[in-house]
Recover the amino acids of this structure.
């Protein structure tokens, strides 16, 4: 630290004082200058310049040496030199030197001390050194507070966290008539951003515009930062975009603003733009980018950010290193986080805390505690964040001892009064169920902020203590702590957990009426709570309302909605929700995939549930449990057991839920021995403690198999008191097996357990009825009447279109009741004839039909494949007897439906969007035979019989090698139309753009490619199934289906070794040649005598027509060019605008002519197609070239699987999306179901002005008005 001598007299030689900071500097002198009157001013000026230059360069000690030298030579030292030295102290933050100068200034008298320039410099010096009290005293004493002193005081207040004082200073400055410059304004805007005073900030923005500071890059960057911190992102982006010049601070502010406000995708986009514009990145830039990547859980982008930091040579300082650790910790790459942590040379408490927090978040509590021990060994003290992580770990694991140890550390180190720590302690005690202790900590905390109140509210709400939650909610308001949305969410959660749904809905309405906007947590709490409390329909409506209000659901809210769909078998909403997941490229986490599989399973779509299961590459136990439960629900024990075996092979430990599902599957299928074997393995092999649910499955298993004595013995011996579900299942079995003694015993147990439940009396009455004890039935019914009990009616429903039809037992109010009863009577008679009905349910008795069967009848009447659901919400134990289930099966068969094993949720088959389009077969499936396979086999057997008898089979033209005279003109017409088609398409493509996907076969006719996410090419998941569009060609419109040209179609087949000896030409042209067209360049042998067949052997007796000679005037090159698409765009010129409609109409006419002609020719002439790939061959047999690379081609040695071809295989239409407005926005995935399709040629010609043939109009869906809302179907 530099020092000055202390001047004790008016004009002595002052000794040089030693500095507390070591300097090895050569003294600076100005010598050999005469000191006469003329040279004195020049010398003084030279000293001043030297001192000023040294001060600006930070060489404060050298400047002090010159100052001492001037004093020794009796120079008059004015205030300006003191001011320059003070400025040097400002640059170096040299407090000791500055205080020495201040002392000298005071000793030099009022003329120095009260000099405005010197006073301002002193204020600036103390402010820059953050000496608040000294700065404030000096600022109050100075005679004139100018813009520089105000700038210093405002900057200091802002820097030291006194932001309100900074803003008050700015206001006072304006009142005193001192205009703030572009150095003051950034500090004022920084204070506004920190305090989130957007109104004040906008006022400052107005001042900036008024004063003309808007072009200043520092002011503009500060405005961006202020708006970003205040959450006004639109204004921030607007200002950012208007900046004529952007520095790195502006870019960093924009990225950080997006990250702070949760707009992480936008932050990554700005980061990308920053790199494109060549801006130099900083540690702050990369840190913000890593934060955005961590928040989005995008691993690839985050790793790229780490790579960018390495490439740019950024060291692992505390800021960047902490950001990288935070990223890897949040995305679950703990090992990478540990590696970065180990490579950091200097670590601060924040770095340690981040890794500890990462461990806690991923359940690695032991690692977190070990790192805490290492942290202490390296002499780092725990702060409030460290303790919060430790307490959070104890809360997540309900480890009360660990939590209390952390609490003791807080007390010893006086941290318990910290609000963050206190909140963590309260949360820990709440999660561990020690509410009394948590309340004591809460009450002992003096400064209780909103976070602490919300923590205690959440603790009560999680446990369903709605009364305590509401009481605390009102208490916080009495203590002048206004609640926020989080507080309201806890109150709603408390009522949902306690089952008081109506009160939860009331609080939600009250919350909205008071102006609180529900956030994602609010909606998720309501949806999940409704689904769990049996209000599934309302949960679905809430989910739709949430989407309608523009809220994007997360995985938790979607799981809640899917659970509601499962409970009500609402398949269409479940499918729409699945579509939402796909469209928004949501990460398929284990909870999400488990909920999807469960939803599809409970809605009867077992295949779809299996597909969801197969989608997950790394399967965990919850996925297995979900699918096993689905199989068990539908009685598919074999599939459930096979999946359980697969789980064992994958070495995944099953839990109690796994065994509950697998035992339930055995129960439904009557696998008694297997069920008890699994129960034994559960205890002995897997060490799973049996629960009452497991015993319930065993009781049900024995009961269903008629072993009622063993079931009763098991109930008596199990270590649990039987609940109502176990006893009810046994009582129902007693009724079915007419076992009165056990039934009465079980009923007595049920009456003691639930004396007021009507279902128990009904079950006993049914047991007596089954045994024919009608007196006992009357007695039980009378007892029910005496007790005032009524039987709760069962309920079922069917969804037809968008309307839900509900049927309640005994309710005849449905509008179509008469029609239902009429069909029921007819069905009863028919089933009685085929002995489906039993004597207990006569056909004439309409009362015997239950609500579920009436729902099926309505579906048949409406001519639909209904989606069924059976509810037990009115009576939890109401069951459909076996006879009634058989009746329902009969109804389904009669109505033309194939019943599934579980009849209460039949699968609704999804139709394709356009039924006119050919089906898209999966890769592993062979194309269907155009001719029924039975007919092919029958013809083959007849040929074989003739061959065995030595009889030659006579054939008709053209199968016998002779031409069909009537088809020769057709062939010429087709060839001429083919040429016109190539010419017309080529000309139109000069004007109308066509795009093709570089990764798949998708084609689009429009100015730009569409945005429909249906690409199935390579790496489509990386592109979220978006197509990668490139410029298309004529082959995208006219798919070049080629075939080998056969000089003699009935001659030797094309072999793999000789395939290059044959020309490949368009299959349409080859078909015309074999039908009689003479092309000199592609000759064909014409026969005069027919051939015959003997089995597979060709009997050829010769007889060939003379071949026509090639005319010298014919140019073979021009002939080839006319029939091939190669080089067609170069051959034909671009049409004028007036010619376009005529060419388009001519082209579409040629297209129709080709299709008509090919169809007609193929009725007689044989064309073969491979059943696996797109290869075609014109001729009676396929070729032997081994070129098939499709499904399992290795098994066939690359040979094609030949079968009769269809017209679309020879002349593919290549369907593309129809664009109603070519100049409009690109087509979107969300509206995919509203778009039509058309052959590519038809779409091209229509856009060029041609009239579309009527048969294409339904396919193109020209009558559909495409809506604007992307989510319309979800809120319908």
């Amino acid at each position: 630290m530099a020092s000055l001598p202390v001047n004790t007299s008016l004009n002595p030689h002052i000794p040089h004082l030693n500095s507390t900071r070591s300097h090895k500097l050569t003294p600076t002198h100005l010598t050999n200058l005469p000191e006469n009157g003329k040279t004195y001013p020049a010398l003084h000026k030279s000293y001043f310049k030297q001192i000023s230059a040294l001060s600006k360069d930070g060489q404060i000690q050298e400047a002090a040496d010159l100052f001492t030298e001037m004093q020794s030579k009796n120079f008059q030292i004015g205030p300006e030199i003191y001011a320059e030295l003070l400025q040097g102290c400002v640059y170096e933050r040299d407090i000791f030197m500055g205080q020495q100068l201040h002392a000298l200034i005071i000793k030099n008298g009022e003329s120095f001390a009260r000099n405005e320039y010197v006073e301002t410099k002193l204020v600036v010096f103390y402010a820059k050194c953050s000496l608040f009290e000294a700065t404030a005293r000096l600022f109050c004493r100075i005679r004139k507070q100018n813009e520089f002193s105000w700038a210093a005081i405002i900057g200091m207040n802002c820097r030291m966290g006194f932001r309100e004082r900074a803003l008050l200073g700015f206001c006072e400055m304006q009142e005193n008539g001192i205009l703030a410059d572009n150095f003051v304004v950034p500090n004022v805007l920084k204070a506004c951003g920190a305090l989130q005073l957007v109104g004040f900030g906008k006022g400052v923005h107005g001042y900036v515009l008024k004063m003309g500071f808007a072009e200043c890059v520092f002011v503009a960057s500060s405005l961006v930062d202020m708006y970003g911190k205040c959450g006004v992102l639109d204004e921030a982006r607007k200002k950012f975009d208007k900046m004529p010049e952007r520095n790195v601070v502006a870019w960093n502010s924009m990225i950080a603003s997006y990250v702070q406000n949760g707009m992480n995708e936008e932050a990554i986009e700005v980061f990308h733009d920053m790199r494109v514009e060549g801006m130099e990145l900083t540690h702050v830039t990369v840190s913000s980018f890593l934060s955005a990547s961590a928040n989005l859980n995008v691993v690839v982008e985050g790793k790229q950010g780490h790579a960018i930091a390495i490439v740019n040579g950024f060291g692992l300082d505390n800021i960047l290193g902490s950001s990288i650790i935070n990223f890897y910790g949040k995305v679950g790459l703990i090992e990478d986080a540990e590696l970065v942590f180990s490579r950091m040379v200097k670590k601060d408490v924040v770095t340690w805390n981040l890794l500890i927090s990462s461990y806690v978040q991923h359940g690695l509590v032991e690692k977190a505690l070990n790192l805490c021990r290492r942290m202490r060994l390296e002499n780092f003290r725990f702060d409030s964040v460290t303790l919060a992580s430790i307490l959070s770990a104890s809360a997540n694991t309900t480890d009360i001892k660990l939590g209390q140890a952390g609490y003791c550390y807080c007390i010893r180190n006086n941290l318990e009064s910290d609000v963050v720590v206190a909140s963590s302690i309260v949360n820990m005690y709440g999660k561990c169920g020690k509410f009394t202790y948590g309340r004591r900590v809460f009450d002992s905390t003096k400064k209780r902020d909103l976070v602490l109140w919300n923590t205690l509210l959440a603790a009560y709400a999680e446990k369903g203590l709605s009364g305590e939650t509401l009481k605390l909610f009102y208490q916080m308001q009495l203590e002048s702590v206004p609640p926020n949305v989080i507080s309201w969410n806890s109150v709603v959660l408390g009522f949902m957990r306690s089952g008081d749904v109506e009160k939860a809905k009331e609080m939600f309405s009250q919350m909205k009426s008071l102006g609180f906007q529900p956030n994602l947590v609010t909606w998720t709490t309501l949806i999940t709570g409704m689904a769990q409390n049996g209000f599934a329909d309302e949960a679905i409506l809430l989910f739709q309302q949430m989407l309608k209000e523009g809220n994007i659901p997360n995985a938790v809210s979607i799981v809640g909605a899917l659970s509601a769909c499962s409970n009500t078998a609402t398949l269409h909403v479940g499918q729409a929700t699945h579509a939402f997941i796909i469209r928004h490229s949501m990460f398929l986490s284990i909870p999400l995939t488990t909920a999807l599989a469960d939803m599809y399973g409970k809605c009867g779509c077992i295949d779809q549930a299996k597909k969801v299961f197969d989608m997950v590459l790394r399967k965990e136990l919850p996925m297995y449990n979900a699918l096993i439960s689905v199989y068990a629900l539908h009685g598919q024990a074999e599939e459930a057991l096979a999946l359980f075996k697969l789980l064992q092979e994958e070495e995944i430990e099953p839990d109690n839920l796994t065994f509950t599902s697998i035992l339930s599957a055995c129960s439904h299928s009557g696998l008694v021995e297997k069920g008890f074997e699994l129960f034994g393995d559960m205890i002995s092999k897997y060490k799973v403690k049996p629960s009452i649910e497991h015993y319930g499955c065993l009781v049900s298993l024995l009961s269903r198999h008629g072993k009622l004595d063993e079931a009763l013995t098991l109930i008596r011996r199990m270590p649990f008191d039987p609940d109502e579900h176990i006893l009810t299942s046994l009582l129902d079995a007693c009724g079915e097996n007419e076992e009165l003694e056990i039934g009465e015993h079980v009923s007595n147990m049920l009456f003691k357990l639930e004396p007021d439940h009507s279902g128990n009396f009904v079950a006993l009455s049914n047991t007596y009825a089954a045994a024919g004890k009608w007196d006992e039935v009357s007695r039980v019914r009378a007892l029910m009447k005496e007790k005032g009990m009524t039987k709760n009616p069962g309920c079922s429903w069917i969804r037809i279109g968008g309307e839900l039809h509900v049927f309640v037992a005994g309710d005849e109010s449905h509008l179509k009741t008469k029609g239902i009863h009429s069909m029921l009577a007819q069905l009863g008679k028919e089933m009685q004839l085929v002995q489906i009905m039993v004597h207990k349910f006569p056909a004439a008795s309409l009362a015997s039909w239950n609500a579920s069967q009436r729902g099926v009848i309505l579906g048949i009447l409406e001519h639909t494949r209904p989606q069924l659901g059976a509810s037990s919400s009115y009576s939890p134990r109401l069951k459909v007897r076996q006879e009634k289930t058989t009746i329902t099966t009969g109804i389904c068969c009669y109505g033309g439906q194939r019943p599934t094993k579980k009849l209460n949720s039949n699968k609704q088959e999804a139709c394709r969007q356009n039924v006119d389009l050919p089906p898209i077969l999966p890769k592993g499936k062979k194309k269907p035979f155009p001719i029924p396979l039975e007919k092919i086999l029958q013809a083959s057997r007849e040929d074989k019989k003739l061959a065995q008898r030595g009889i030659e089979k006579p054939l008709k033209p053209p199968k016998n090698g002779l031409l069909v005279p009537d088809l020769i003109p057709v062939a010429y017409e087709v060839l001429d139309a083919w040429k016109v088609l190539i010419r017309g398409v080529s000309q139109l493509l000069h004007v109308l753009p066509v795009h093709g996907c570089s990764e798949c076969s998708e084609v689009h006719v429009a100015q730009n490619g569409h945005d429909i996410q249906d690409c199935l090419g390579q790496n489509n998941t990386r592109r979220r199934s978006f197509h990668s569009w490139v410029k298309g060609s004529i082959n995208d419109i006219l798919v070049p289906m080629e075939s080998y040209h056969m000089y003699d179609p009935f001659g030797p087949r094309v072999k793999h070794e000789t395939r290059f000896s044959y020309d490949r030409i368009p299959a349409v042209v080859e078909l015309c040649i074999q039908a009689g067209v003479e092309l000199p360049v592609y000759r064909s042998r014409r026969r005069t005598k027919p051939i015959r067949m003997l089995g597979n052997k060709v009997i050829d007796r010769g007889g060939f027509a003379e071949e026509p000679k090639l005319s010298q005037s014919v140019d073979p090159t021009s002939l080839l060019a006319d029939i091939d698409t190669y080089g067609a765009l170069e051959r034909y010129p671009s049409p004028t605008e007036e010619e376009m409609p005529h060419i388009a109409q001519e082209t579409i006419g040629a297209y129709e002519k080709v299709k008509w002609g090919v169809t007609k020719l193929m009725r007689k002439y044989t064309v073969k197609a491979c059943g696996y790939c797109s290869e075609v061959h014109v001729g009676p047999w396929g070729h032997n070239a081994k070129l098939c690379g499709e499904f399992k081609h290795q098994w066939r040695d690359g040979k094609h699987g030949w079968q009769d071809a269809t017209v679309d295989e020879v002349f593919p239409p290549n369907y593309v999306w129809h664009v109603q407005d070519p100049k409009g926005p690109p087509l979107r995935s969300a509206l995919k179901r509203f778009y039509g399709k058309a052959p590519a040629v038809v779409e091209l010609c229509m856009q060029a002005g041609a009239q579309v043939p009527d048969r294409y109009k339904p396919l193109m869906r020209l009558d559909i008005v495409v809506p604007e809302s992307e989510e319309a179907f979800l809120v319908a």
Q: What stands out?
A: The longest helix spans residues 1140-1162. Residues 1-38, 833-848, 863-916, 1270-1276 have pLDDT under 50 and may be disordered. The longest strand covers residues 795-800. Residues 41-288 form a domain with the Serine Threonine Protein Phosphatase 5, Tetratricopeptide repeat fold (CATH 1.25.40.10).
